[in-house]
Each structure stands twice: as C-alpha cells, then as structure tokens.
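This section describes the prediction task in plain terms. A model, or a person checking by hand, is given the sequence of a single protein chain and must write out its three-dimensional structure as a string of tokens. No templates, partner chains or ligands are provided. The sample shown here is typical of the held-out split.
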Amino acid sequence: MGFVKEFREFALKGNVLDLAIGVIIGGAFGKIIASAISDVIMPIVSIPGKADFSNLYLPLTTKGREVIDAAFAATGSVPSLEEARKAGSVFAYGSFVTELINFVILAFCVFLIVKTVNTARRRFEAEKTPPPPTGPSAEEKLLTEIRDLLKAR
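The expected answer:
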C-alpha cells in the first residue's frame, strides 16, 4: 500500500499537475502555430519563388531517380514527395526546412509570451506598496538598553 500512497502523493503534487497542464496547453498551442505557419505564413513566403518547401527532395537511389526522371519527362513536373518516397529513398530537405521554420516561429511566439508575462510581473511587483518598517526586535531593544547603560556610566 505504501507504493500506491507514494505514487498518489507524487501525482497530486502541484508541480506535476502544472507540468501536465503545460504539456496539454503546449500541444494545443503547437497545433495553432503549425496551422498558422502552414496555412498563412508558408503560402506568403512561397509567393516570390513559388516554392513549396515541403516537396523539395533529392532521390537517393537509382530506381528513385529513374522514376522521378520518367515522371518529369511525361508530365513536365516533378512528382510529389509522397510519390518519390514510394519510388525509393529520398533526402527530404524541404520537410526539414519547413520544420525548422516552424520551430523558429514557435520559439519566437513562446518568447513573446514569456516576455509579456515577465513585463506584467515586473509591473505588478513595482505597484506593490512596501511593507511598513517593523519596530526593533527584542534583541535590538536589549542591545540598545545595554548601550544606554554603558553610556550612562
């Protein structure tokens, strides 16, 4: 029974619950940012070069290169990343670039949130009135009396 009680105490500690809530909210926030990146930012970024980073790749096998070359000759366009993966191994650097951009934007958003919270915390702490000074402690009173007695001699 000690193990179950110990686990319950661990699971119900405030830090564990705060961490769980943070992970859940972080996951939801990550989905929002991923949607903003893929649906809003990446289309704008790809306008000048008309590039879709997620479909940039290099074939790593001869068979894959042949399938891609044949598809390009037949249609005049390079197959999608999924089609290229079916043909063989590919070095999907476009997916990596997209994920890197996602990370930088997500990190920037988290930075802005933390900066806002820190600024608000500093403001609230500055607005607090300092506590009134407390009187001398019993020890200080005793030392003052001793000092006064020594001066009187």
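For orientation: Residues 93-127 form the longest helix (35 residues).
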